[in-house]
Design goal:
Blueprint (H helix, E strand, L loop, with lengths): L7 H11 L1 H29 L4 H27 L5 H16 L4 E4 L2 E4 L3 H14 L16 H9 L6 H37 L2 H8 L1
Antiparallel strand pairs: 1-2
Helix pairs in contact: 1-2
């Protein structure tokens, strides 16, 4: 027969024809690797930053909110339309003074309040919260992020299995056993007294009472 150079395509055709089971397993491993390798890398990234999957999505929402509020705050400062807490308190005080001078009010322990404007006040408060623009401040830090090395140590050697944690756990167990033993001894003493009292004849109990 004629010799043919063994290229990768030729080797692939040969294995596919002669060793179909091996090639099927290889194809399956390639597909699973495309899924598991990114999944494993994602969890390595989470561990490096000291987060769980749930915390990652929560921090993502916080980062998005902080970015939007910072943008709104800077734009409000630029336009000069920012609403501060002191301005809102002044407006609320003026409104309360106006309500106190009105006749359609109910006077209680908290001052003059309109009798039929509870829903209106709630709607106005919600509108103010939506329109209120405040400085979100610096982006918060994850207090559980102790660095890459320490974060991986938390996974490999959890704090609950370290020596100091185990000593505290054993001490709490001893304390619980002591409390349970003392409770059991006091209960048994009370049972003995009750048994002695029940075993005493009735005329003896009456004599002791007299």
């Amino acid at each position: 027969g004629q010799e043919t150079k063994a290229t990768l395509f030729v080797v692939f055709q040969y294995l596919l024809y002669r060793r179909f089971e091996i090639m099927a397993n290889l194809f399956f491993l390639i597909v699973m690797s495309c899924v598991l390798v990114p999944f494993f890398g994602y969890h390595l990234w989470l561990t490096a930053f000291g987060m769980t999957t749930n915390e990652h999505f929560k921090w993502k929402q916080i980062r998005k909110w902080h970015k939007q509020e910072t943008k709104r705050y800077k734009q409000a400062i630029k336009d000069g339309t920012i609403i501060t807490l002191s301005n809102q308190q002044e407006q609320k005080k003026k409104k309360n003074d106006h309500v106190a001078g009105s006749d359609n009010v109910d006077v209680g322990c908290t001052g003059a309040v309109p009798s039929t404007t509870n829903d209106t006040n709630q709607e106005e408060e919600e509108e103010w919260k939506e329109g209120c623009i405040m400085d979100p401040g610096p982006f918060p830090k994850n207090i559980y992020n102790r660095g890459i090395v320490e974060n991986f140590m938390e996974v490999i050697f959890p704090r609950s299995l370290r020596k100091d944690a185990l000593e505290r756990y054993e001490a709490s167990l001893r304390q619980q056993q002591e409390q349970s033993s003392s409770t059991t001894s006091s209960a048994s003493a009370m049972d003995k007294q009750q048994q002695q009292h029940d075993a005493t004849p009735l005329y003896v109990q009456q004599t002791r009472k007299e």
